[in-house]
Amino acid sequence: MITAALALPLILAVVLVLSGIAKLRAPQTVAAGFRDLRVPAALDRAWLRALLPWGELVLAAALLAAPGALAPVAAIAAALLFLAYWVLIRRALSFEKPVSCGCFGEASAEPVSGWTLARNTVLALVALGWVACSFVTSGPGLIAALRGADALWLLGGALGALTLWLSMPRGAAAPAAVDPAAGAGTLGAPRPAGAPGEASADQEAEDYVRRPTPGMLLRDASGELISLRSLASQGARLLLLVSPGCGSCTITMADAVQWRGNLGPVTLHLMTQAPQESLEAQTDASLHEDALYDVGGFAYELLGMAGTPTAVLVGADGALAGGPVGGYEAIREFVAQIRDQLAEAEQLDPAQDDTGQADADQSGEARPAS
């Protein structure tokens, strides 16, 4: 009985901690989630978005540490929060276009679905169950009453949950260095000796194992099928795998408008498995002509992409030149790295740097010059 009762606040606390940390690591997903879920204007405030992840962490601690009469207060606060999340997800499922919730930062980049609602239903029921229990007990009281067998049950459940979490695919991969032999210079030709930054770039490239460009077929905006290998042979390509409705993808697609004009000889392509009309409805018209459609759904496996948004640089020499990297922040850094190496190889127009910086300064937002 003690184990079952303590499991209720423990489950809620773990979820809140994971959610809070994920939001702190990718704060832009909070703003995107508020926008995509159409949070009422009265609640869509910058200060509230900034406090949300910290509030989740504080609430997680309160669920387990609040004694006596404070236990119901924490329990009711958690129940209201999870019920609010449930309402937002339920409403989002009725939207004309799929959206992402950003519930767990960049790890929840996929659009909300019936599974998301089912998960939130369970969490809301757990929260309501703890509200009922909190009037007769508390987290500290249950912890103090734990016996050896109860602790073993909780430990076993925690280890099982940890194993399941570790086995789940990650939506964001760690940044991979751009190979200076293919990701800079002519992106496919050897880099000239003595180029600036050669030692550090070469050291990074030693850890990056280049793979042959897969011969996968993609559909272009005109409906024609084209081989990725054939496309890359005409010049280096930066592929951004996106999913319309994904919060992080929305920000990535918005910045791609600026990136595409600042990459010199590298051509930027949005790539998606979504219908063409869905992508074009949510992106700037300047990106439509170069968009690619993964009609066979092979990008994840053949290019090593683990989720959306993800970026990979395809060299002109028949091999991948960098990536894949996942998540908006990692993609920003990746684009900046490509630009740096192009600039070192003198393949980047200096005017592009000025334009990019000017755009970033005028926007007042944390947008990279790259």
Characteristics of this structure?
370 residues; alpha/beta; Glutaredoxin; 2 domains; seven-stranded mixed β-sheet; 7 strands; 52% helix; Methylamine utilisation protein MauE domain-containing protein
Description:
This protein has 370 residues and is α/β, with parallel strands linked by helices. The chain folds into two domains: 2-167, no CATH class; 198-363, Glutaredoxin (3-Layer(aba) Sandwich), CATH 3.40.30.10. 52% of the residues lie in helices and 9% in strands. The chain has 14 helices and seven strands. The chain has helices at 2-25, 28-36, 46-65, 70-92, 114-134, 139-144, 148-167, 198-206, 228-232, 247-259, 276-281, 299-302, 328-344, 350-363, and strands spanning 217-220, 225-227, 237-241, 267-272, 292-293, 310-314, 320-326. Helix 2 crosses helix 10, helix 3 packs across helix 4 (70-92) and helix 10 (247-259) packs parallel to helix 13 (328-344). The longest helix is centred in the N-terminal third of the chain and has 24 residues, at 2-25. The chain is elongated, with a radius of gyration of 24 Å. The N and C termini lie far apart (57 Å).
Short structural summary:
With 370 residues, the chain is α/β, with parallel strands linked by helices. The chain contains 14 helices and seven strands.
